[in-house]
Amino acid sequence: MTTKAPWSDGRLCYGGDWNPEQWPPQVWREDVALMRAAGINLVTVGVFAWSRLEPEPGRHTLDWLDRVLDLLHAAGIRAALSTPTASPPPWFSLRHPDALPVTADGVRLTHGSRDTYCAAAPAYRDAARSIAGVLAARYAHHPALALWHVHNEYGTTCHCPHAEAAFRRWLTGRYGDLDALNDAWVTSFWSQHYTDWAQVGAPRATQYLANPGQLLDFRRFWSDTLLSAYTEQRDLLRAANPAVPVTTNYVLGDWVPVDHARWAREVDLIAIDHYPSTADLGAEEQTAFAADLARGWARHGAGRPAPWLLAESAPNQIHTAGRMHTKEPGRMTRHSLAHVARGSAGVMFFQWRAPAGGAERFHSAVVSHAGADTRVFREAAALGAALGRLAGTAPGRVEAGVAIAYDAASGWALRHPGMPRAGLDHPGEAAAAHRALWHAGVTADVVPPGAPLDGARLLVLPALYLASDATIDWVRRHVDAGGHLLVTWLSGVADEHARIRLGGYPGAYRDLLGVRVEEFHPLADDEEVPLTGGGTGRIWSETVHLAGAETVSVYAGGAPAGRPAITRHRVGDAYAWYVSTRPDDDTYRRLLTEAARLAGVTPTCPDAPPGVEAVRRHDTDGSLLHLLNHTDRPQRVPVAGFELLTGATVDGVLTVAPGGVAVVREEPS
Ligand code: GLA
């Protein structure tokens, strides 16, 4: 039987995590009826069901899952069937104490939550393959099966002896011999020179600062270890029925030891979970950034464009440190359609029904503890209808003239405690550049270094600390082809091993930028330095010397007072900008708007009022303009075409309701 990917019939995916194992069968039937009422067409099942699928080692109880999948199929709802390997049952941990994870401090964790295993432990890997194999054998040809969802949010880490042995094997593969490793890690410093592989360990708690090269390689190694745990499951699922796509849901966050760009070539679909961490407009900024990041991985990861999907999002509350904030009416819909606007193949929630107990009992759900007669359910059903009206429009190509580089390893390297300042944050700087452009109405791609820069006239390197020779070559090729470049502080300071590129910062890009940085002057959290022309710099400042570039603005105070803060260097017909501090938001927005303008990139919808997000996507039928009104007032936007959500013809001006969304099939101009 040929199983088609859920998005292949032109419909957008709509659904979420469903946990029938938490409920008796009469609730399953009620759930499926409610799903149909809400327009749900895809549900993720089985994510944490291992102890219900294998209550004792080797004894499998699958009848309930048979019934669940049959019920879904009869209702015309498809399943993203999970392997449950993110949550081994209690019997597994008791039987295999060596498979429990060990923290960097040497503490072995115990069973009691989820994700409590070491991904390098042979017993864990055997058990994971075994349960995945059982599911593959039973369900690979089930008519409800649309997608395999392996595991859940790979991201836990371990420092146990299994992990350490695997690290040594990985290092042997990477470096070949100890001389190369000693060189890469600069072990001449602090007497760390290794003479035997047995001396090389995982970076456990140590007396003072750990070796930056060792820490960085351990992160890379662990990302590869988790990836191999994924690919071995994927391979056996694929072997059971090659027609069913396989993926795993990415968890975003600076703690995650996964290089998602490297994983992109191993999945059939990029799936991200997205939960904003702030309740103010930052939630909308984060949503746009996460979606653009996912699109970048999907477009560039595999060397072939893959689809991407919002695999989890909250139907209601935003969880911030300390409390949950209710999403105001319409906000869930705006967040969901912001992902669709930026190319998602659909919208999935965590979770369908709120559990009656368990650690996440108060996490929001489409069907809450109050049932389905709720504002949240009604909004979810309305969104289901809206997604139905957008059928046939996805995914297309999002129009973006700027590319922002994003590199997990640079983020990891900047977190080393021996940096000139605490809190250095490459993902945060990428998000800051994206936010500045978002407020300017300019859509950006977020791409891994080395990705094809098709269409991007301006490339931004935001504190892209590590620069391999290949990355330098990639940047140079962009500039040689007439592209503009904007580089911020701390970019290109080190090579891929976190060794400093000498001769003045930023060693990788000095020539291109026409500057030489002599000294860093990191700022305190609450410190600002004034810049000429208005605005301030934060976080960081530097002593910059011109070496061909011209000055755009000057430090009007602080340690580098009187020296250039922002410069630009004419390279052919383009500019290579250097920004040696983090400008305040307004200054950064103006700076990036100007750099984009000079590169020939203008806002997506120049006449859209402030607070209206505009994203244009091109598909085979022409262009679609998505308008998201994040204000509490109606907003008028000049546009002509056909509004898909209401079915109204738009003659020249469209009024988008407060907090509302419009999707306009534009008239060809
Ligand atoms: C993640 C997990 C879910 C759940 C949600 C809560 O995305 O995959 O199981 O814990 O977070 O926000």
UniProtKB/TrEMBL annotation:
It catalyses: Hydrolysis of terminal non-reducing beta-D-galactose residues in beta-D-galactosides. Keywords: Glycosidase, Hydrolase. It holds the Pfam family Glyco_hydro_42. Transmembrane segments: none annotated. One of its GO terms (molecular function) is beta-galactosidase activity. Residues 400-600 form the Beta-galactosidase trimerisation domain. Residues 611-666 form the Beta-galactosidase C-terminal domain. InterPro entries: Beta_galactosidase_C (IPR013739), Beta_galactosidase_Trimer (IPR013738), Class_I_gatase-like (IPR029062), GH (IPR017853), Glyco_hydro_42 (IPR003476), Glyco_hydro_42_N (IPR013529), Glyco_hydro_b (IPR013780). Coiled coil: none annotated. Its EC number is 3.2.1.23. Residues 17-388 form the Glycoside hydrolase family 42 N-terminal domain. Belongs to the glycosyl hydrolase 42 family. This is Beta-galactosidase. The lineage of its organism: Bacteria, Bacillati, Actinomycetota, Actinomycetes, Micromonosporales.
